[in-house]
Every structure is written in structure tokens, then in C-alpha cells.
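Private note to self, pasted from the team thread so I don't lose it. C-alpha cells:
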């Protein structure tokens, strides 16, 4: 039998093609979590924190839903206060904020456009006014616009993709850096497409390649300050990015080509972010951790 996640039919046997997700598509991008069927699983109820991030303050871009939400909840379970930066997905952000408060941690939500450099400085200013410190930056926000050919990718799309997926990482890092102390961490969320490409996501894959090189170069630049920089490269993960970018037919089989024959859930990445944010990874910088259902790619 396949792993018993909600989107698998309990009657499906191993020799049959695994069931993925009901066909669905959202017009709003990067998408909303609350209307998805099924809802992504952001939290592992069996995950118990052990104060690895006690009283740390973490900024998570795209923290309202998907991988960002899962990381935010796990950070809160480890004792961190969280700043969620998001575009305009207000209901998703409020749900995440409510859960963090239930876990006894503070949560600040800030809505705005990360493509604009000045917004990053606004985020940092609000964070410092509220908490007086910044210890962890998770650059996670991203967009993707599948196209059949590079001829279909407009200059506007190319600029939007890079301004969201890598420019915002630069902007947030520059804004945060003066407030980081020794032992602080930066985690950049990348993608498996940086290593193997994707024929329908040429501009997105290129931007993710930039994220990986940015991570390695920044780690070298900050090592003398004892600020560690690492990246996570997820494979297919069930987040709002998927139904808001792919067509319904692609959603139906999303994730089934991995060795595990299923997409991952956001909560399955959360411990990786905790590991890279905590002292458990004190001898790791400039590295990429692959969470992709078993696909072997270059590191």
C-alpha cells in the first residue's frame, strides 16, 4: 500500500499508478491554501519541540502557506517568534498566525510586495520595533509560470520571476544583515529544478539556479562573521504554487514521477528548516539539502 496521506485512495495497490490530486486550478498566483483539495498538511502532530530556537526571532517570506507555513509552525514549536511576510493572502496568513499564537509564541504578519526593495527595509524596521532582534531569515517566496516554449516567456514574466525568486532574496538579506549577530542563520528555499531543469519552467529553473549560487557565495562572504547560509531544494511539494500555476491535468499526476511516487507535504520539509536554523547544523554552511522523494541530483 502507498503511504496513507489523505490524497491516496486506500484501495489502490502498489502495482497500480498512484493517485495524486483532484484536478483543480486557481487564477490567483502564487495561490491560496484554504480552497485547495485536499489542504496541504503543514504540521506533524507528533512533532514535539525541544527549545532549539528558544526566543529566537525568524523572518519567513511566503510564510502564510505551504512550506513557509510549515517552517513557521515548526519554528514556533521550537520556541521561536515568527514574522510572516506575504503578498495578499490575508486569510492564509491569519490562519498561520493563529496557530503560532496557540503554540504560545508571538507572530507578526506583514503584507506587501517583495519585488520592491524598499518593502524589505520596511519588514526589518517593523520586526526590530516589535521584537528588537532578528536571528533567522528564511527566503522562501517564489512564483512560477509554466510555458511550453521559451518563445512564450515575455520580458514581463521573466522580470517578475527573477524579481520575486532571487531579487527579493538579495533585498531581504541586505536589509537584515546589519542586525544579524554571530550564530545567526539564513536559509534560502530553492528547488530541484535548479539541478535537473524543467521543460515548462525555464525562467523559474534559471532563477532557482541563481538561488543556489547565491547561497554558496553568500555563505563564503559571511563565514568570517559566523553567520551561516544554507539552502533547501524541495522536489514536488503540495503547496498553493501548484494549482495556481499548473493546468488541471498536470495537477492530477503531480509528484507521481518521483521514486516515492507521490508529492511531498509541507510538514515533511519543516524539520530540515529547523535543523539549518539551529545549532544542530553549526558546522554546515554553503550547502544544499535535498528533500525530493528520492530523486538523485548533483549537490
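Design output:
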Amino acid at each position: 500500500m502507498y503511504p496513507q496521506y489523505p490524497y491516496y485512495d486506500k484501495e489502490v495497490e502498489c502495482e497500480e499508478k498512484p493517485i495524486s490530486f483532484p484536478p483543480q486550478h486557481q487564477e490567483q498566483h502564487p495561490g491560496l491554501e484554504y480552497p485547495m483539495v485536499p489542504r496541504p498538511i503543514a504540521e506533524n502532530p507528533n512533532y514535539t519541540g525541544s527549545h532549539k530556537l528558544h526566543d529566537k526571532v525568524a523572518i519567513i517570506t511566503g510564510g502564510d502557506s505551504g512550506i513557509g507555513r510549515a517552517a513557521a509552525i515548526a519554528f514556533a514549536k521550537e520556541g521561536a517568534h515568527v514574522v510572516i511576510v506575504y503578498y495578499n493572502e490575508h486569510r492564509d496568513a491569519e490562519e498561520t498566525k493563529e496557530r503560532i499564537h496557540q503554540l504560545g509564541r508571538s507572530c507578526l504578519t506583514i503584507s506587501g510586495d517583495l519585488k520592491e526593495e524598499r518593502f524589505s527595509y520596511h519588514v526589518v524596521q517593523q520586526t526590530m520595533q516589535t521584537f528588537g532582534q532578528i536571528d533567522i531569515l528564511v527566503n522562501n517566496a517564489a512564483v512560477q509560470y509554466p510555458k511550453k516554449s521559451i518563445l512564450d516567456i515575455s520580458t514581463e514574466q521573466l522580470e517578475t520571476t527573477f524579481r520575486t525568486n532571487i531579487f527579493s532574496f538579495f533585498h531581504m538579506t541586505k536589509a537584515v544583515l546589519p542586525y544579524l549577530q554571530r550564530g545567526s542563520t539564513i536559509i534560502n528555499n530553492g528547488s530541484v529544478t535548479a539541478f535537473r531543469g524543467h521543460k515548462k519552467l525555464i525562467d523559474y529553473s534559471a532563477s532557482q539556479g541563481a538561488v543556489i549560487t547565491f547561497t554558496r557565495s553568500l555563505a563564503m562572504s559571511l563565514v568570517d562573521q559566523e553567520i551561516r547560509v544554507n539552502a533547501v531544494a524541495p522536489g514536488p511539494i503540495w503547496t498553493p504554487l501548484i494549482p495556481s500555476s499548473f493546468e488541471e491535468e498536470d495537477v492530477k499526476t503531480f509528484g507521481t514521477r518521483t521514486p516515492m511516487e507521490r508529492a511531498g507535504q509541507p510538514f515533511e520539509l519543516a524539520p530540515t528548516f529547523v535543523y539549518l536554523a539551529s545549532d544542530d547544523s553549526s558546522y554546515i554552511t554553503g550547502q544544499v539539502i535535498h528533500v525530493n522523494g528520492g530523486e538523485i541530483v548533483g549537490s
